[in-house]
Amino acid sequence: MAEKASKLITFIWEGTDRKGNKTKGELSSENIVLAKAQLRKQGIVPSKVKRKPTSLLGPRKKKITPFDIAVFTRQLATMMKAGVPLIQGFDIVAEGAENPSLRELILDIRNDVAAGNSFSAALRNHPRHFDDLFCNLVDSGEKSGALETMLDRVAGYMEKTETLKKKVKKAMTYPIAVLVVAVIVTAILLIKVVPQFESLFSGFGADLPAFTQLVIRLSEWLQAWWFAVLIGIAGTILLFKEANHRFQAFSDFVDRTVLKIPVMGDILHKSAIARFARVLSTTFAAGVPLVDALDSVAGATGNVVYRDAVLKIKDEVATGIQLQFSMKSSGVFPTMAVQLVSIGEESGALDTMLEKVATHFEEEVDNAVDNLTALMEPMIMAVLGVLVGGLIIAMYLPIFQMGQVVG
Hints:
3-stranded antiparallel β-sheet, flat, 407 residues, mainly alpha
């Protein structure tokens, strides 16, 4: 196994191109000598190359997102389909990468491959960005001699999966945003507005309505304990995230619970089915045996209910039971998905039918998210109206009562 490449350094350079025009830019390399060699290879005569200075607080690296990886995979697939050698493809894609962290990652992989490692082995050195499914598919493409086709397929799978995740995230974020806005508006009114009315009511010399007294007590309590409330909310969120990350039993409980939430649960059900079909279609079309493909699919569904169902299906398929019967007996897959898989198994076009299932449920998720967004807009107005209107009524009730006494 070749030794892993050194850490890459970012250099700032100035020079002239083939036409004699002055140009400048940045590039990542292991040292200044290799940096100059890379520039000459690109037809640039360097006049100044120096290490990029870092800030006193240290460099702030931009995060590499799954969508960045999808774009990298798509561009590399395009390069290879155009007949560009793999190493040169890495150089071209890295040069065009806007994210410096992504550029560094691509060049690190490029150096590993140039040192004699396989592409899949180089990817396995970066498990944060390339999961087992990605690496296994690339490995399959290398062994079959159809790497460019496999990269194209993986890129398509990642693009559709990330689009689906964004839609689900949008559906989950919207109600939370409504709740947060409602809480913030209510807190501001209780802390800043209600005390002004309280000082006014103190000179009335009469008993205040019960509703007004309740709001005033709530306002006094929040003024005294707002910092503790803030810490409590932040602590609860952090504790929830930590428990969800560290304890599998708690994470499984959350997964099962969210599937029971009205509207939201339906979106999560459909997205899990879409991911199941998309991943299984991609892996099966790549020539991966069905049992092995189901093993990869289990972790990609994104929910413990479907993960357990797929693992059970895998065990049944391994004993010779057809996929359609296993899916039906699991009780989590709708009839349409089972029927299309049945047609695919009988016609020998399982990957095509699975792709149709994925496309159908991705569209279902898209429509459900749009419907949820349309539904939430009047709900925002209703929630804010009840909270703000309730506080206003509580503050004006004593004034109305006083007016009736005077009248």
